[in-house]
Amino acid sequence: MNNLFRALNDATRREILELLKDGDMTAGDIADKFDMSKPSISHHLDLLRQADLVASVKKGQFVLYSLNMTVMDEIMVWFMQFKPNATQAEKPRIRLHVGK
Amino acid sequence: MNNLFRALNDATRREILELLKDGDMTAGDIADKFDMSKPSISHHLDLLRQADLVASVKKGQFVLYSLNMTVMDEIMVWFMQFKPNATQAEKPRIRLHVGK
DNA sequence: TAAATATTTAGATAATCTTCTAATCAATAT
DNA sequence: ATATTGATTAGAAGATTATCTAAATATTTA
Question: Model's pTM, two decimal places?
């Protein structure tokens, strides 16, 4: 969970995810989309991989990166806990009474 | 969007959100739940407020913090872009052909 | 085999982040 | 009025992060 939020906490990495939405790409083609050195992009890809947000496969001399949707589900579940479920019985909320 | 992911990229702040799920709390009561100084918690609350994930209201000497669900929706929409919508016509995915 | 290409690893630097203590501000209580 | 209580602000130290260049590794091509 920590790796997940860490990976998402960067505009470049989020853009990479949006790029991969439209299809797999090689590390080089991803790097070409940014005004940033290849090693930097490689590092971003590494963090995305650590978070399981992308998968990579070596294809000859290239490395193909692809989105991994399954981890997104995990995040969605986490967020859902904050959406009070309409089908579930209304729980009384603990309220603090402060002051007089 | 940046503030949002930044705020979420910390275990303590995520725990604070989970605490507030069950009802509003004062800054002090939140701080008591953590093994951390009050100023540190105050700073975490500030980042959560900057991200609009919580709202705060001064009640006399206390400050009451509450969850702000509405921003969660924004995040959900962002995540949804990665979930290929079943009702939408299947778009051909761009595929890279690498190697022979 | 040697050169070229694609990518990653290593190491350095600057910026940002987390946390602390001390000090300040604001509200309540003595 | 002054002391106490709740909370934030200021400033500093240490850790983490983003980025770079240079070097290394692996694969393909000449």
Answer: 0.85
